[in-house]
Amino acid sequence: MTRVLHVLDHSLPLHSGYTFRTRAILKAQQAAGIEVRGVTGMRHAAEGPASEDIDGLAFRRTPGAASGPVGLREWREIGALARTVEQIAREWRPDVIHAHSPALCGMAAARAARALDLPLVYEIRAFWEDAAVGNGTSRDGSVKYRLTRELENRAIAASDAVVTICQGLRGDLMTRGVAAEKITVMPNGVDLTLFGAPPPRDEGLARDLDIGEGPVIGFIGSFYDYEGLDDLIDAMPALVRSHPEARLLLVGGGPMEAALKARSEASSAAHAIRFTGRVPHSEVERYYSLCQVMAYPRKRSRLTDLVTPLKPLEAMVQGRIVAASDVGGHRELVTDGLTGVLFPADDPVACAARLAALLDSRAYWDAMRQAGQAHVAAYHDWARNIHRYQDIYQVLVGAAHRGRTRAAA
């Protein structure tokens, strides 16, 4: 039985897209007969013991906190995580080390893999320098941006195989000179065992929110600038003129929350927009139940053109109609007119027109829902896609074994 040690930035019990993808990968690998463990770096912020089991998954934590100026602090983080990875690997003896972005994890895993002569897989979920620009914590071309990109390139060079979540990231890596045969695309996926039948409308919650009878366009997630929620708010006056009962439900929070609320209050469609704030993950399905359409109006940027999000796939599984901007990450997930609809990015007028046309075309909604669910089941089901990891591991473990045999001869 293959043993795989996953090196992670953070994990459960924290809730994020990162931790949910990690959980899905590790649970699917367990179900496929692979032994897995996880180790997190210093940025795992949840309190807890040094070793803990969560949802049947074993995690080890890296203790302490790094200090010092930018660059030195990250170097210390890498060193501490590398020591933890090496310690666990000597105890547990994995066959493969599988590191997940950011590059701090990749570099730490590379140190440990070299010391122990183990094969290394490095998985890139996004380029974190671009994510930092999208989140407003860095600037394109800044020292921090260039440093993060250089660390990423070094982690890639040190790995035996690279995994990305979409074709956009794969194409960018190839422009950097990474060989195509070194890269495997492992699409964002959904653990279908977590989803039952789409929930019925929660009438009590609808009354509490004074949401009316619909139609309801929803967004559930983090309020970052790149998500384009300002464009969605700006689209509402035109949409309400053609569909007076339409409502917009914004569930979540984040850096743009105050600005978005102010924008909504100044809108002529303020009466049609509802903010709920953040809600517990266990309550999310209740809010999905109120929405007929889930909207993802991401702005066009390097981040959104290269990276595929997870939320549209979850919405399809929930039997919701997906309306999304035509950035590259969405075009990999949504076939316009079949599994959802696309509208021009950064254009509230076009967004309103597309949503209005969608609300006028309800006769096609059942077919669109079925097509979306079938698409996820065929291409984004972790139980199916997990076999791509097994293929990578088998090749690397076989090559490592042959190398050791030759060295011992």
CATH superfamily of the largest domain: Glycogen Phosphorylase B
The total of beta strands comes to: 14
Ranges with pLDDT <50 over ≥5 residues? none
Helical segment count = 16
Report the order of strands and helices.
EHEEEHEHEHHEHEHEHEHEHEHHEHEHHH
CATH architecture of the largest domain: 3-Layer(aba) Sandwich
What's the story with the biggest beta sheet? 8 strands, mixed
Q: How far is it from the N-terminal to the C-terminal residue, by CA?
A: 26 Å
- Quick one: CATH class of the largest domain? Alpha Beta
The average pLDDT value, as a whole number, equals: 94
Beta-strand percentage? 15-25%
Shape label: globular
CATH topology of the largest domain: Rossmann fold
Class from helix and strand fractions = alpha/beta
Q: What is the topology, as strand order, of the major beta sheet?
A: 3-4-2-1-5-6-7-8
Radius of gyration: 22 Å
Q: What would you call the quaternary organization?
A: single chain
- Tell me the count of domains: 2
**What fraction, in percent, of the residue positions are helical?**
40-55%
Explained architecture:
Pfam families: Glyco_trans_1_4, Glyco_trans_4_4. The chain is α/β, with parallel strands linked by helices and 409 residues long. 46% of the residues lie in helices and 17% in strands. The protein folds into 2 domains: 3-189 and 382-408, 3-Layer(aba) Sandwich (Rossmann fold); 193-379, Glycogen Phosphorylase B (Rossmann fold). The strands form 2 sheets. An 8-stranded mixed beta sheet has the order 3-4-2-1-5-6-7-8, with helices on both faces. Strands 11-10-9-12-13-14 form a 6-stranded parallel beta sheet, sandwiched between helices. Strand 10 (247-253), helix 9 and strand 11 form a beta-alpha-beta unit. The model has no long low-confidence stretch (mean pLDDT 94).
